[in-house]
Design brief:
Formate dehydrogenase/DMSO reductase fold, 346 residues, 0% strand, 12 helices
């Protein structure tokens, strides 16, 4: 009898929890940018136009904090300049090093134009901003879906799901901001955001249905691997079931606007659940899928560290978001106060 013992070396995860934060925030920023551009070109009396302050606040917070998460995920952040010194146009990550700064500058340019009250410049900036936001959506989706060694990443539905869940989180976060930004007091604005949330939720349901049906009929690698994980591993089975339950709850609440339009608690629960679902999808996609061996059986055991590369990093990014949001709201309060004083003196 011969015994063959296989030894596996210890590898660090290629994607850290920082990546979950980055893809979550940058995806939300693209949604906020697209909605802000929509608002800029809408009629002044429309709900979309009246929601512009909410979207500017959301865009400014997410577009500032997202690059911080990306730098932290580079393992050696101080070497980010290597992307520019050794540019490789066939690499989506290298392309992202060019596309992301353009998107950040255009987003901040739109925020500045709104701050100065220049409708003309807002419309000028909004056009390239739309193209730039779509380029970020394409680059972030392609960066994952090109990895052929992982069937759960290497399929065309991953970029679509990343975009739809990110935009759903954008709408939900804007709904949360209606509680602290004066523009959100308008019920029409909340109803408009609710309509967008319902549309995006239905789109996600349609995409999931198409993926399951096409995967079952065509026996696609991504569907087969997901089915194997569901059958053999309780953690994946529990995660998928919870995702379905959470999705049904969110969809049901979108369909009943009377439950949350004028109820602060229900609104917070709805928006929080939708944002949590979008964030949880990225956690499962990045950290969960990395725990599935490319070649072998079972699952890799991932133990999240408590330091900067783990729990403290996650909490730190959310803390940064709160800090930036506080600064933006404080600036808006000062601006509104100065405007009222100017009107009184006139």
């Amino acid at each position: 009898m011969q015994i063959i013992e296989l030894l596996t070396p210890h590898y660090d995860a290629a994607w850290l929890p920082w990546a979950v934060q980055y893809f979550f925030l940058v995806g939300m920023s693209t949604g906020a940018a697209l909605l802000a551009a929509w608002s800029v070109w809408s009629k002044p009396e429309s709900a979309a136009a009246q929601a512009l302050p909410l979207l500017i606040v959301l865009l400014s917070v997410t577009v500032i904090t997202a690059p911080v998460s990306l730098l932290a995920d580079l393992h050696q952040p101080a070497r980010f300049w290597h992307f520019y010194a050794h540019f490789t146009p066939w690499s989506w990550m290298s392309m992202g090093a060019v596309l992301l700064p353009i998107f950040v500058m255009l987003s901040l340019g739109l925020c500045l134009a709104w701050w100065r009250g220049s409708q003309r410049w807002m419309r000028i900036v909004s056009v390239p901003l739309i193209l730039s936001a779509l380029s970020i959506v394409i680059y972030t989706g392609a960066e994952i879906s090109i990895v052929r060694a992982r069937p759960l990443w290497n399929n065309p539905w991953v970029p679509v799901n990343l975009a739809l869940t990110a935009w759903l989180a954008s709408v939900s976060a804007a709904l949360l901001l209606t509680l602290c930004v004066p523009a959100g007091r308008n019920i029409a604005v909340r109803a408009w955001l609710g309509t967008l949330g319902l549309f995006l939720s239905l789109a996600l349901l349609a995409v999931a249905t198409v993926w399951v049906v096409s995967g079952y009929v065509m026996q696609t690698p991504s569907f087969l691997e997901a089915l194997d994980l569901y059958r053999n591993f309780p953690i994946w089975r529990t995660s998928i079931r919870l995702s379905v339950v959470l999705g049904v709850i969110v969809l049901a609440m979108w369909l009943r606007p009377g439950w949350w339009l004028q109820s602060r608690i229900t609104l917070v629960l709805l928006a929080g659940a939708a944002c949590a679902a979008a964030w949880g999808f990225r956690w499962a996609l990045f950290m969960g899928v990395q725990g599935v061996p490319k070649y072998g059986a079972g699952l890799y055991v991932y133990s999240m560290p408590l330091g900067g590369d783990g729990l403290m990093g996650i909490l730190g990014v959310f803390g940064l978001c709160v800090a930036v949001l506080t600064a933006v709201l404080w600036a808006l309060e000062i601006k509104e106060r100065a405007y009222k004083e100017r009107v009184c003196h006139e």
